[in-house]
Amino acid sequence: MHPETPNPSFRFSNFIEARSNNKAGTAALRVARNLGPASVPMVIWGAAGLGKTHLLQAIGNERLRLNPAARIVYQSGDGFEADLAAALQQGAVAGFRSRYESADLLLFDDVQRLAGKVRAQAELVWLFDALLESLRSIVLAGDRSPYDMTGVAGDLKTRLNLGLSVSIEPPDLETRAAVLMQKARTWGIDLPPEVAFFLGRRIRTDLAELERALLRLAACARQPITLETAAWELRHVIALPERMITVERVQAAVADHFGIAPGDLLSNRHALPLQLAMALCLELTDHGLEEVGPRFGGRDAAAVLLACREAQTARETDARFRDDFSHLLGILAL
């Protein structure tokens, strides 16, 4: 896999800077603008999905903005190994080396993917030396500190530790929400701030997972996107709230919404609230038909199934019932 040029969509102007990444962002901008010694390598490290690739390619795009004639090369660890394997098979190692050593700036992503790959590591060591001797720049990204990388030979680890090592930490809630709002604007999605914060609270793994959730929501949800529709459409991917959702919690929320007592859901006097409550219990709790029924006046599994089918029909045909269901789902999922 031959090296590429940076993706032009990754720029400093759309990189959300926060306490979790400002040191890395500042250092990356200095490298991009040649404000430090070119012979000092830089390693950006942190867990997957935190913006390392964005920052890495933003360096290349900023360098190109300042010097359109610069030769910027972007490659990943897997791509580097595949490119080397093809060169070895074709007897074209000289051409392989030339593709990289001629770069004014080499951007090397996912360096940890070379763990245990002896020949690929040896070639990267050779490339390190060639670039630094000619006062050209190399910036790498990995999922952990160079000191903590396993399966990496001593000579490569020594070179990774030659220069500046900066980390990107997991973003806080405000940063996660800001990233979502920016992506929504870029993709033309009407995303209310309260929904961005809702997703940010529920998905804390990485920014890439947040972006996937936003795309899924935009594809599935009716516009405009509300808290209720977000909770419903992403119910299988968002984290459960800190408070466990129980049958009693569902009953209390439904009763409060309709202005009735929770005990009224144990009889047939309020058919629609009863159907809605049982449907929500099956959707949001860990209980099955046989367990939900007895909590609603001793009903059996067949009665619960019938009620849920009627609730589904009502959601498809009755706008008021659908709004009630979505509103309660949003309240219980928050």
In brief:
Helix content is 54%, strand content 7%. It is α/β, with parallel strands linked by helices and 334 residues long.
Structural features:
Chromosomal Replication Initiator Protein Dnaa, Chain: A; Helicase, Ruva Protein, domain 3; 3 domains; 334 residues; five-stranded parallel sheet; alpha/beta; 15 helices; 5 strands; Rossmann fold; 7% strand
What this model shows, in words?
- Helix 1 packs parallel to helix 2, helix 3 packs antiparallel against helix 4 and helix 12 packs across helix 14.
- The protein is elongated.
- Strand 3, helix 5 and strand 4 form a beta-alpha-beta unit.
- It is built from 15 helices and 5 strands.
- With 334 residues, the protein is an alpha/beta fold.
- Strands 2-3-4-1-5 form a 5-stranded parallel sheet, sandwiched between helices.
- The protein folds into 3 domains: 156 residues, 3-Layer(aba) Sandwich (Rossmann fold); 60 residues, Helicase, Ruva Protein, domain 3, CATH 1.10.8; 87 residues, Chromosomal Replication Initiator Protein Dnaa, Chain: A.
- This is DnaA domain protein.
* Largest beta sheet: strand ordering: 2-3-4-1-5
Tell me about the largest β-sheet. 5 strands, parallel
Measured distance between first and last alpha carbons: 45 Å
Which residues sit in consecutive blocks of at least 5 with pLDDT less than 50? none
Question: What is the CATH C level class of the largest domain, in words?
Answer: Alpha Beta
Structural class: alpha/beta
> What's the gyration radius in Å?
27 Å
Helix content: 40-55%
By CATH, the superfamily of the largest domain comes out as P-loop containing nucleotide triphosphate hydrolases
- CATH architecture call of the largest domain: 3-Layer(aba) Sandwich
Number of helices: 15
Domain Chromosomal replication initiator DnaA C-terminal: 246-311
Family: Belongs to the DnaA family.
Protein name: DnaA domain protein
Pfam families: Bac_DnaA, Bac_DnaA_C
